[in-house]
Amino acid sequence: MDQQRIALVIQYQGTHFQGWQRQPNQRTVQQEIETAIATVTQTPVTLHGAGRTDTGVHAAAQVAHFQAPDYIPAYRWATILNNRLSEDVLIRASASVPSSWHARFSAKWRRYRYTLYTDARPNLFVRPFTWHYYHHPLDEQLIQAALEQLLGYHHLSAFQRSGTSRPHAWVDVQFVSCQRQEPFIHIEVQASGFLYGMMRLLVGLLVQVGNGERSLEEFRDIWAEERRELVKYAAPAQGLCLLRVGYPEFPFDPDIWFDTFPKFVVG
């Protein structure tokens, strides 16, 4: 039977998932989609993702691929799988890609957004997607200045959790941004790749800069001197979202994958 390679753009609310990667006796995004595919193909399948999000982390446009029989049109897979998936995972679109195309290895960058909610009053409707941080005022300009230090190619082992299989900690940081839209602060980072736990550890340290606990000089010294022991706090998972993944050649229109995670407005 002839095969074709199918690419997927995937959204998921990470709240009730133990991350992307398949794990024994755990609910994961990869496993759930693989199971749905297998109900159609009647054979085991491996889904290859562009990145491995942690427990509780969301994705607005994760990308993955798998091999499938060519008798099913590629564009139909999105509907077929959505009819078999739970409410907290969705296939935005599906398309055929060349056999040399790989969701992980063909990607040139990934972008994450972290959202903080700074109003002292809790809000049920933003709680699943934000870190409710109201203990101290945060200066977004200081956070932006700290982020700009990271632009370029750096060894960022200070922002890497133990347990990784990655052979090095070099990261090409391509874009950074910190913007306030009362009462929200949005932190975005785009890089060639992300270390295990990098964004949550980075945001944890950035908050210490924003609240005045650490200076810009201390922030730079910590990561430049690889002082992992000084990065003690990881931001909560629910505030983090994989926004999008970039490829030189991508079969999907930008409105499908480029900007699909809303910024909250309270009014």
UniProtKB/TrEMBL annotation:
Gene3D superfamilies: Pseudouridine synthase I, catalytic domain, C-terminal subdomain, Pseudouridine synthase I, catalytic domain, N-terminal subdomain
Record-linked InterPro entries: PsdUridine_synth_cat_dom_sf, PsdUridine_synth_TruA, PsdUridine_synth_TruA_a/b_dom, PsdUridine_synth_TruA_C, TruA/RsuA/RluB/E/F_N
This enzyme's EC code(s): 5.4.99.12
UniProt KW keywords: Isomerase, tRNA processing
GO MF annotations in UniProt: RNA binding; tRNA pseudouridine(38-40) synthase activity
Residues the record marks as active site: 54 (nucleophile)
Catalytic activity: uridine(38/39/40) in tRNA = pseudouridine(38/39/40) in tRNA
GO biological process: tRNA pseudouridine synthesis
Binding site for substrate: 112
Record keyword Isomerase present: yes
Domain Pseudouridine synthase I TruA alpha/beta: 10-105, 146-248
Task performed by this protein: Formation of pseudouridine at positions 38, 39 and 40 in the anticodon stem and loop of transfer RNAs.
Family statement drawn from the similarity comment of this UniProt entry: Belongs to the tRNA pseudouridine synthase TruA family.
Subunit composition and interactions: Homodimer.
NCBIfam families given in the database record: hisT_truA (TIGR00071)
Listed name of the protein: tRNA pseudouridine synthase A
Organism of derivation: Planktothrix serta PCC 8927
Gene this chain is encoded by: truA
